[in-house]
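Quick one: AhpC/TSA family protein from Neorhodopirellula lusitana, structure tokens please.
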Amino acid sequence: MNRCFSRIAGLRRGAAFAALVIAATVSMSGQRARGEATLGIGDKAPTLDIEHYVQKGKEGFGEVTDFEEGKIYVVEFWATWCGPCIQSMPHLVELQNKYRGEGVRVISISDEEVEKVEELLEQDYPGREETFGELTSAYTLTVDPDGSVSEDYMQAAEQNGIPSSFLVGKTGLIEWIGHPMELDEPLAEVLADRWDREAYKEQMKRQEQFQIAMQKVNQLAGSGKFEDALKVVDKLLEELKSQDDPRSNLIRKQLTSFQYNLRLDSGDQSDEVMAFFRKQLNEAKSDNRELTQFSYNLMASMQQGTDPGALAGETIAALNESVDSADDEVKPLMYVLIAQINASMTKFDEAIAAQKKAIEASTGRQKERMTQLLEQFQEMADSQDESEEAK
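--- reply ---
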């Protein structure tokens, strides 16, 4: 699950696709070098010294300092500029509404200024007929500009990617740390008193070691040393063979996918590589959201210089085949992806035509952003025409 992260300095254009997949694989790209974490699984959750409560939830939850025994808390860190944080909001609403009567409380914390968050809350949430404020009113939304809570949790646990959530169990101990989109299973297990904290602690230790190795891969790919990067990936896959738990199996699957992304990023358009991606594309066609994610990753890599060959046209075709049946929430993004992939191939007429459809499918502030992107495509087309005339 993607998180907001800082792009690696010196990342060359051809390595962007690899970097994107690393982010999805380890769920924690852009971390600083790890030191000695002072907050981990099984430790007592620090008290919350939050400066501002912007929204306390529909039930009128009060402010929280210490954690009440017998209740469960999700302490989540986010920011207005973080796309994955925004995408996680509906899921946090779903979890809060589902477990509201079972002593579960979601508390989201941003270290931005109050005015910045309040400005976002007044805007329309993309694809929904409600504002950010109306959507997130289900749970507790807070602001802590001095960053003290982030220091107690994020820095202490060596967690630098957001969104990031800490599951505080019935006895006030940290039970789980991870992406809020992955909360469902641990939250349900903690509620049912079935959570194996020690097993998860060991699993997280292995994951940290894996992340350190993947940082090395990221550095190698960023400097164009694809062969060396692939050797590290091969070694990681060999080590994972002896681990047969759900998380290791998922990492193994994602790491295998990364191998092929890295090969494509290096310019490998062999039959084997193209067959792998065509299989992914065909599987994604059954779910518009999966197709959108696949297309987004491809588009982002193309914008950084990766040449996916015929896969670009095939992805556009798949999007065109599926867009008419897509939900209103997803349809504008699918048209945007069609436009951007075409633009990456300098097919600006096709890009402009698709972007106009994206505008028609959009509402509110989203339509304004879509119009701005159309203007950019038109400027790029005009620039291309001028260059051709100059020749």
